[in-house]
Amino acid sequence: FALAVVSVGSDSYLGRTCTGRIVSGSISVGDGVSLLAREGQQSDELPSSSVSGLFCYEGVSRKPMEAFACAGDCVTLAGVPESVAVGDTI
Fold first, then answer.
1. Which residues contact 57 (CB under 8 A, 6 or more apart)?
2. Total-model pTM
3. For a surface tag, which of 1, 10, 54, 74 has the fewest beta carbons within 10 Å of its beta carbon?
4. CA-CA-CA-CA torsion for 38, 39, 45, 51, nearest 10 degrees?
5. Per-residue confidence at 21, pLDDT binned at 50, 70, 90?
């Protein structure tokens, strides 16, 4: 699974969220994710977490996904590491 992060947000109920396009693979609620190392960063410093929410878009409204999302889908993930930033790859 790989997702290119284009937007980062926060929700009082869901916690840290990020929005992006899935480049490869698939994801569902409960799957573990971690950040890919940037240049000069050690891989053991990178946080990981479990996806607590998965949302897709229909027009401008955000809808929860029941199953899974796969490559090409634009999705919002909830429960991502606090250190995620725009431009990161999950």
1. 63, 74, 76
2. 0.86
3. 10
4. 10
5. very high
